[in-house]
Design a protein that fits this description.
Length: 72
Amino acid sequence: MEWQQLIGFYHIVKSGGFTKAAQITHRTQSALTQQIKKLEEELDCLVFERLGKRKIILTPAGEKLFSFTQKL
């Protein structure tokens, strides 16, 4: 788990999506998507449930991770 992955994850949740989070973190949307994909692989669980192309919600594991990132 890398610091940038946690920062990206945090901003995705706070901003409500990958596009805005990418702008905030000065990354491309695809780079941010890849970071989250790697994070999910490392954690061996999904942190977001994707509902169509534009809507995401936190999984129970994602909620725990978000709580952790808020404390950082």
